[in-house]
Specification:
Layout lengths: L1 E7 L3 H12 L4 E5 L5 H6 L1 H18 L15 H25 L3 E4 L2 E5 L2 E4 L2 E10 L3 E3 L11 E2 L12 E5 L3 H13 L2 E5 L11 H13 L3 E3 L3 E8 L2 E7 L3 E6 L1 E4 L3 E3 L3 H6 L22 E3 L10 H15 L13 E3 L4 E6 L2 H7 L4 E6 L4 H5 L6 E6 L5 E8 L2 H4 L1 H8 L4 H5 L10 H10 L7
Parallel strand pairs: 1-2, 1-6, 2-3, 6-17, 8-15, 9-10, 9-15, 10-11
Antiparallel strand pairs: 4-5, 5-6, 7-16, 12-13, 13-14, 18-19, 19-22, 20-21, 21-22
Helix pairs in contact: 1-8, 3-4, 3-5
Length: 452
């Protein structure tokens, strides 16, 4: 049998592409050597959010007094948190397996190796295909001085079933700050070290400032513009030497290294002659095509936006174009969400990015503390920010505050459709809700604020 589509990798790009390909009339096979769902389902967004659901509830109970609720004699059991998280992950895996079967996708278990432009093998099974989708994902980056036994990455951290007394988190990006929030909430002494000038270095400085302040209020120690010089194993954990303005040392029970991921480009893929960039990622155009006519790539392997929802969209774009479609990826309106306290959601341009590029823009910023719904939640940190071009078309949205990840979609639609402020204000926003931050920020942007 010759498959119309062979997918290498069962993560968010791969399994979504396989299902959509089958729905479009293709005969599809997918190979996965570990667990369906890839990084997101197994060691990424899903277990992280399961952990955070537990820690945020625990934190809310600790702060219940300010809502007029008295609590006592409560605790968090890390073994139970792990057990619950394992169930959530397993349910996700089984759900994907069911969906593949429902859509008549042949699932091959094992490591797939490409033998040519139209042939591959998985264990002892030969697979012939017309089109190939590379979707093998990525792995955590690990390098000296962190090549020490016991130093964890995000791939290993979810095996944890006890609360560490102290933890060093190396890297203040998305994974690092989410994990810092989790461990600080459950009682660990948390230190975050970031080599750049502020945490979340890919986001605006004002976003980082709000999150930094919030994290410090929760007792998290943050060191920016700081290098890690050495890591040594000692009886009670790890002794680590740093260089900030001066050199200093500190001992931690546990270390989590979260400084990014690298795409899984194997030797057989390189042998095909697929073009790679300087970082070793597969190069694709906005139709997800590689330089080889029947080979496409989606998800972390292309190194563009290592986000599950972006990977899934890339997979759909790829298979639609295999069938003669003309879809293009719109990365500029692809959202980013961060599940910290406060939550962060952003889409489109950032203000710092526009300044650096010398692009003219206007902005409307409204503080979360002036929003009625935020006040009912006892939430004072954060803001809404809408960026527009000279014609008042919305080119960027950032929300920092409660439920920011849930209300971001209005911003995604606004950026993608190039909506202007006047059009946004034509829509009545329900009161009292966090979504009113759009109305308030837009009014500020037009120079006609009512509630500020």
């Amino acid at each position: 049998m010759v498959y119309d589509l062979f997918v290498m990798g069962g993560g968010p790009a791969g399994y979504v592409a396989a299902i959509r390909g089958s729905q479009l009339g293709m005969k599809v096979a997918i190979a996965e050597e570990k667990f369906l769902g890839g990084t997101c389902t197994n060691v990424g967004c899903i277990p992280t959010k399961a952990w955070l659901a537990s820690s945020e509830l625990f934190q809310s109970i600790k702060e219940a007094k300010k809502f007029g609720i008295t609590t006592e004699n409560f605790s968090i059991d890390m073994k139970s948190v792990k057990s619950r998280t394992d169930r959530v992950v397993m349910k996700g895996r089984k759900g994907i397996e069911y969906l593949l079967k429902k859509n008549n996708v042949d699932l091959l278990t094992g490591h797939a190796i490409v033998d040519g432009f139209n042939k591959a093998h998985v264990a002892d099974k030969t697979v012939e295909f017309k089109n190939l989708l590379l979707a093998q994902g990525s792995h955590p980056i690990k390098f000296p001085p962190f090549n020490v036994d016991g130093v964890m990455t995000s791939d290993e951290i979810f095996s944890l079933d006890k609360i560490p007394s102290s933890i060093l988190i190396v890297g203040g990006g998305v994974i690092g700050v989410e994990m810092a929030n989790f461990f600080s909430s459950i009682g660990s002494e948390v230190t975050v070290v970031e080599v750049m000038d502020h945490i979340l270095p890919n986001m605006d400085g004002d976003v980082a400032d709000v999150l930094t302040s919030s994290m410090k209020k929760r007792g998290i120690e943050i060191h920016t513009a700081t290098k890690t010089l050495s890591v040594d194993k000692v009886d009670n954990g790890f002794k680590v030497a740093f260089e900030e303005k001066e050199k200093f040392e500190k001992t931690f029970e546990m270390i989590l290294l979260s400084v990014g991921r690298k795409s899984n480009v194997t030797d057989d893929i390189k042998a095909l002659g697929v073009d790679l960039d300087q970082k070793g990622n597969v190069i694709t155009d906005d139709a997800m095509k590689t330089n080889i006519s029947n080979i496409y790539a989606a998800g972390d392997i292309n190194g563009k936006y290592m986000l599950a929802h972006v990977a899934s969209r890339e997979g759909i774009v790829a298979v639609t174009n295999m069938k003669g479609g003309n879809l293009k990826m719109d990365y500029r309106s692809s959202p980013s969400v961060i599940f910290t306290t406060p939550e962060i959601g952003s889409v489109g341009y950032g203000e710092d990015e526009l300044k650096k590029a010398g692009i003219e823009y206007k902005k409307g910023v409204f503080p979360m503390t002036a929003l009625g719904r935020a006040r009912t939640l006892e939430f004072n940190d954060g803001f809404g920010k809408i960026l527009t071009d000279k014609d008042e078309n919305i080119i960027g949205v950032t929300i920092v505050g409660p439920m920011a990840t849930e209300v971001l979609m209005e911003g995604v639609i606004a950026v993608h459709s190039k909506m202007n402020l006047e059009k946004l204000l034509d829509h009545v926003h329900p009161h009292p809700t966090i979504s009113e931050i759009y109305m308030e920020s837009a009014e500020v942007g037009m120079g006609m604020p009512i509630d500020l």
